[in-house]
Amino acid sequence: MEFHRPPHTFIGQVDIKVSNLERSLLFYQNIIGFKVLEQSENKALLTADGKTALLSIEQPEDIIPKEPRTTGLYHFAILLPTRADLGRILLHFIQNDIPLGASDHLVSEALYLNDPDGNGIEVYADRDSSTWEWQNNEVTMTTETLDGQSVIEEGRGEAWTGLPTNTLMGHIHLHVSELSRTEEFYTKALGFDVVTRYGGQALFISTGGYHHHIGLNTWNGIGAPAPSENSVGLKWFSLVLPNEEARKTTIDKLKSMGVWVQEDGGEILTKDPSGNKIKLVIA
Asked: pLDDT at position 266, please?
């Protein structure tokens, strides 16, 4: 979990739009294991430790279903502290008949599912970073069959009681309309390094040698449009920068590149070339 604290830049919170807040709250509490930090009529902040919001879900008045073949959220990824934690939540998912995907990526072991609106979720645990293999500054990642039984056995002896307190938002994976300008935006303006490329269709980026803090893909098609503002899906995600000086430097880079930046009441928003909104916060 050393990759999710300063001096690195990492994902802090993800804000998604849903069509039915009450239904989504039941899912995120009972199935994923979040606790409610704050709640209003149309929005809830969700937490693992009772102090830090990792996910916010909101129901706009004029919400429409998730629009296909657009840019936006592919999945957000919840990072559990240990493999045993992954085993306990895997058994919990199975006992509740939750449709799942599961993969061994060498650097991590991951479960995949959707919320009631089709927003993608990954729940994963990292392998020790000393076991990750690097070649020419790229980390080796594959998609192999997960040894689910071994993962479950790792978690036996302790019941699932929700997300552990030191759960983090590990990464986010986005649909984008193209990769060239997107790569320039995230590397030159935001300071990320490319750590894996998948042909001309996807790339993973990080800071500090993590396997990825952000995934970017064009699997919804080159030139995919941004979704409608009131569509189910991603509203924004936050990048946590090490300090105010780093944030100011980032803002200056964005403006020098002609990128949209909005500063309002201490909140600073920008957006990538595909329209994915990013809130710049400090640790």
From this structure: 84
Question: Closest by alpha carbon to 81, among 43, 49, 113?
Answer: 49
Length of the chain: 283
Instruction: Report residue 278 CA to chain centroid gap.
Output: 12
- What is the domain range of residue 174? 2-282
CATH number, position 23:
3.10.180.10
Q: State the pLDDT at residue 113.
A: 98
Note whether 185 and 192 are within 8 A (CB): no
Check if the beta carbon of residue 71 is closer than 8 Å to that of residue 176: yes
From CA 153, how far away is CA 79, in angstroms rounded? Answer: 19
- Residue 2's Cα: distance from chain center in Å? 17
Environment class of 64 (CB within 10 Å of its CB; exposed 0-12, middle 13-18, buried 19+): middle
Domain count, the chain: 1
Q: Which of 98, 102, 101, 103 is nearest to 116 (CA)?
A: 98
Dist. CA 124–CA 78, nearest whole Å? 6
- Could you identify the residue written with the tokens 């949209």? 260
Q: What is the DSSP string of 91-139?
A: HHHHHTT---EEEE-SSEEEEEEE-TT--EEEEEEEPPGGG--EETTEE
pLDDT at 171: 98
Contact status, residue 236 vs residue 178, Cβ threshold 8 Å: no
Query: For residue 277, what are the CA distances in angstroms to 52, 110, 223, 244, 250?
Result: 21, 26, 18, 20, 15
Which pTM value belongs to this model? Answer: 0.97
Are 116 and 65 in contact by the 8 Å Cβ rule? The answer is no
Got the DSSP string for 228-270?
Answer: PTTBSEEEEEEEEESSHHHHHHHHHHHHHTT--EEEETTEEEE
Sign of CA dihedral 260, 12, 134, 246: positive
Residues with pLDDT less than 50, the chain: none
